[in-house]
Amino acid sequence: MADELGKLERLRQSGALSNAEFEAAKRRVLEPGAPAEDNTIGRAANRYVSFQMIVGVIGLIVFLVFLFTVFLPMMNRTTDLIPPSGPGINRAPVTFP
């Protein structure tokens, strides 16, 4: 038990553990039946990954809305402005009065 407390103290002094994490870990070592706190690093990482997934989906939706409402209609307008050319397309001569 003393070795574990010493390790925890060294981790706290090195900055790897915050004071709250150190106190929670010390309580778990000293009182094995004590309930573990819900604010662990693993749960924080899971929340962060969930946040990234949600933001990614929202970003994809915004991109698709932009693509279909702005970009693709604009592409159709620019191709309408280009006169057809190529073999087999006969243009009538332009005459000016």
TrEMBL record:
Species whose genome carries this gene: Kutzneria albida DSM 43870
Pfam families, alphabetized: SHOCT
Keyword field: Membrane, Transmembrane, Transmembrane helix
SHOCT domain location: 3-30
Superkingdom classification of source: Bacteria
Protein name: SHOCT domain-containing protein
Transmembrane segments: 49-72
